[in-house]
Amino acid sequence: MKLDSESKRRLIAAVATAVIDNAEELTALDRAIGDGDHGLNMKRGFEAVLADLEGLAEKPLPEMCKGIGTHLVMTIGGASGPLYGTLFLALGKDLPSAPGLPEVARAFISAVTAVKSRGRSDIGEKTMLDVLVPVAKTLDTAAASGSSGNLPAQLCIAADRGLEATRPLRATKGRASFLGERSVGHLDPGARSSQLLVHAACGALSGLMAGPGGQSA
Asked: What average pLDDT score do residues 3-20 get?
């Protein structure tokens, strides 16, 4: 899968806009179980990404991801900046310039592992990992089978299920953990922002992720 500048421009704009347009919802989710700043922080970070759209789109894919990660680390406050920054920086470290599906899967799994390490967390603790881990597993399964025909839809389904799975969980990480049982019954805002990114990226890349015969383009 080789992305030209226009494809990278569409991808960056899609993920940034998805977060910016849903900032109020993210804030509301975070207000219920956190300190209410997730939406504002994420919006500020992706506005910085969007402001550098042209420069980022002209970079090779690995450097583009690293550039996005750097913007997020520098502009998103709280825990989200280091975590989302780590995700994109790690992607940039492991992605080749023109990856196939196996390379995408390996890089994403490595990036999710880096987020786990940075946040000292894992799936089942009511965090962004409850979305990212199922998405990584779906990518890995598709790469192992060698078919990506309906992969964008599968990734979105995995993200949706991961998000919904956070509702009954008791938070054990971050400010939400202070609420104890009162965190049960709420969606995790970090999981929601991750789900937004997955949907936006899949939408922007859907035409490139599957070529003729369902093979990776």
From this structure: 96
| The token pair that represents 94 in the structure block | 């492991």
Backbone angles phi, psi at 125, to 5 degrees: -110, 15
CA distances (Å), origin 146, targets 140, 150, 201: 10, 12, 20
26, 134, 185, 202 from 31: Cα distances, Å: 8, 26, 14, 28
Residue pointed to by tokens 């936006």: 200
In tens, the pLDDT along 17-42 reads 999 999 999 999 999 887 889 999 99
* DSSP result, 92-124: HHH--SS--HHHHHHHHHHHHHHHHHHHT--TT
DSSP state of 176: G
Domain 5-214 in CATH 3.10.105.10? The answer is: no
